[in-house]
Amino acid sequence: MDQETVRTICYLARLKIDQNKSEKIQKDLETIIELIGSLQSIDTSDVEPLYSPLEMTAFKHEDLEKSDNKKNKFLENAAESNEDYFLVPRVVE
Amino acid sequence: MSIQFKSITELNKLLDSKAISASELTQESIQLAKKYSELNCFVTLNEENSSKRASDIDRNKKNTSLLSGIPLAQKDLFCTEGLKTTCSSKILSNFKPPYTATVVKKLEDAGSITIGKTNMDEFAMGSSNETSFFGSVHNPWKKGFVPGGSSGGSAAAVAAGIVPAATGTDTGGSIRQPAAHCGITGLKPTYGRISRWGMIAFASSLDQAGPLARSAEDCAILLNSMSGYDSKDTTSLNADVPNFLEDINQSIKGKKIGIIKEFNLSDLDTEVQKRFDESKKAFENLGAEFIEVSLPNISASVPTYYSIAPAECSSNLSRYDGVRFGHRAENTDDLNDLYIKSRSEGFGDEVKRRILIGTYALSAGYYDAYYKKAQQVRRLIKNDFDQVFKSIDLLMTPTSPNTAFKFESKGTQNPVELYLEDLFTISSNLAGLPAISIPHGQVNSLPVGLQLIGNFLREDQLLNAAHVFQQNSDFHNAKPNLENF
Predict the structure, then answer these.
(1) Could you say which of B169, B176, B208, B412 would form a disulfide bridge with B437 (CB–CB 3.0 to 4.6 Å)?
(2) Structural domain boundaries of chain A?
(3) How far is B197 from B211, CA to CA, in rounded Å?
(4) What kind and span of H or E run contains A72?
């Protein structure tokens, strides 16, 4: 893993790593990838991945109308909002 | 009368006989939390609300549940309406959830009183509680030593006798390992047994809530209330919930306990190994039979976990963008800049590391090699468990290879060093199986935990074996000397 790859992953994850921590992160990631890479020696041909220990189909909700509108409570947690919306920096000029 | 270190059953009797009121009990619990504030167990105390709730319970004691009037602490990743829920992260340091997690609601419906929210590793990512934005929690047994993690605050609060029990979550050992390091009992139930609704997600296919208490019996009391199907959690199991107290006293004569061949216990610290051998002998004296079993793929658990958990973490934590809730950076140029700055300021180093690993493992070109591969190995690990549980009732391992360690003594140079601490606990999360840690002695004045792993939905067998062991030993009654706090 090189610094360029680290920069790409950081961008994909929308994270910025301080310059002084960049080398340490690169080293840590290499060590962890090496650990995970050890799985390559295990023969998994014809083995289906197990994405959840339950392997069941999710239950469906009944489509019921409810009236517990918590709009104001949800908006209260936003750093910036008006009466109806979350506010963000302008995206359309 | 001091209520410190009393069990739920003892406190229930005191409440029933009116020797103490729920208000007095709650007040003393809060006072203890303040007295031992240096332990740093709590992020938020729920003083005003819990006093009010206790008075209501005293005035209107119709609830006959064993938990009625009992003070509890909740790990700070269970949403509590109107009460700060931080996940021990800067990014959620001012978050007041608009709803309450099913687990907390069920415990409160049974009459328990939430006295506060406990400190933890940030977003439950860690095995030492050192990644918390609010600082490390001290192990009540030794100042300057970790309590384990990620449910370190919950474990320390129970071990210090502040509350008789607390909730935790376990993604790779986060209930069992701190329970072991703090000398208490901690149960990770079967995946799906307890609703995850309102429990802030780290790795959704591995996360499971569970109780921490001084004894298996008290864990059973909590589990009775915490379990059950919840239509709001799509991975909740629609399975019958037994009364976990009913068969807890049964003899364990003839129970078959497996010892995993692939875990070479002779590599362990000699004293940790000695405690294990002594407990094995104790179970034999209680009538259990030991069989050596092979789980050929179990050694791959740690790398499998450290591919799957970060992948799920990177996906789950993408919701923290500074827009709808959580920390928002100031002076941002545009929306993208707002995302990057808010997340970079809000997350700590370990969380960032795991998000980056997960992002890498899920990115184009690497998905099959890392993520899919790990999920394939996960099936092999689960198949191994399915196979051995055809001939045994339980598996027994140490909970952790070591006792609690000093602050900043592990994982600072190489994070993998700390990941290997989870060697014995991780596989049951990958397979979704229940497992319990019980105290079974000390090494260098620090507690050591013994782990029992059960078959799917067989928490009853775990609690039974643990309870019978505790009825015939005194390790779970040991109390730390708290003079230094």
Answers:
(1) B176
(2) 1-39
(3) 16
(4) helix A71-76
| Beta-strand relationship, B208-213 and B185-188 | antiparallel
Given a cut of 70, whether residue B63 has pLDDT beyond it is no
Q: In Å, what is the CA distance from B351 to each residue of B88, B95, B112, B175, B260?
A: 11, 18, 32, 19, 32
A32–B375 C-beta distance less than 8 A = no
Stretch A18-22: mean pLDDT: 88
CB pairs below 8 Å between A and B: how many?
165
Distance CA B60, CA B58 (A): 6
Burial grade of B468 (CB within 10 A; 0-12, 13-18, 19 or more): buried
Determine the distance in angstroms separating the CA of A41 from the nearest CA of chain B, rounded to an integer: 10
Provide the phi-psi class of B135: left if phi over 0, else alpha when psi is between -120 and 50, else beta. Answer: left
Q: List B residues 240-279 in contact with A (Cβ-Cβ < 8 A).
A: none
* Res. B181 pLDDT band, cuts 50 70 90: very high
pLDDT digits (tens, 9 = 90+) for B430-452: 999 999 999 999 999 999 999 99
Find chain A residues with C-beta within 8 A of B192's C-beta: 53-54
Nearest CA in chain A to B229: A59
Q: Give B90-147 pLDDT, tens digit per residue.
A: 999 999 999 999 999 999 999 999 999 999 999 999 999 999 999 999 999 999 999 9
Q: How many CB atoms lie within 10 A of CB A93?
A: 3
Chain A residues within 8 A of B372 when measuring between CB atoms: 49
Which one has a higher pLDDT value, A62 or A14?
Answer: A14
pLDDT of B12 = 95
CA dihedral (B100, B166, B107, B35) positive or negative: negative
pLDDT of residue B437: 98
Q: Do B96 and A16 touch (CB under 8 A)?
A: no
Percent of chain A with pLDDT over 90: 65
**Predicted ipTM > 0.85:** yes
> Burial code of A12-47, b = ≥16 C-beta within 10 A, e = fewer?
bbbbbbeeeeeeebbebbeebbebbeebeebebeeb
Point out the least confidently predicted range of A80-89, B266-275, B408-417. B408-417
| DSSP sequence for B100-138 | --HHHHHHHHTT-EEEEEE--SGGG--SSSTT-TT-PPP
CA distance B379 to B430: 9
Only one residue has tokens 């700390």, namely: B418
Instruction: Round the average pLDDT of chain B to a whole number and report it.
Output: 96
- The domains of chain B, with CATH numbers, are 1-485 (3.90.1300.10)
**Residue in chain A lying closest to B299 (CA):** A39
How many Cβ atoms sit within 10 Å of the Cβ of residue B71?
29
Q: Which residue has the tokens 């050192």?
A: B130
Token pair in block for residue B424: 């014995």
A-contacting residues of B 327-366, CB under 8 Å?
327-328, 332-341, 343-344, 347, 349, 352-353, 355-357, 359-361, 363
Owner of token pair 């989870």: B422
pLDDT average, residue stretch B143-164: 98
For A64, A67, B144, B241, the CA distances from A61, given in Å and listed in that order, are 8, 16, 49, 22
